[in-house]
Amino acid sequence: MMLGLRITVIALIQCLFLGSMVYDRIQILEHGKTIVLKTTPIDPRSLFRGDYVTLRYDISQLDAHKLEGENSFDLWQKIFVAVEKRGEIWEATGLYSSWPQIIGDQIILAGRVKYDAGNSVWIKYGIDSYFVPEGKGKEIEKAIGDRMDPSRVLVQIAVSDTGKAAIKGLSLDGKLLTHETWF
Question: Can you give the pTM of this predicted structure?
Answer without folding.
Answer: 0.76
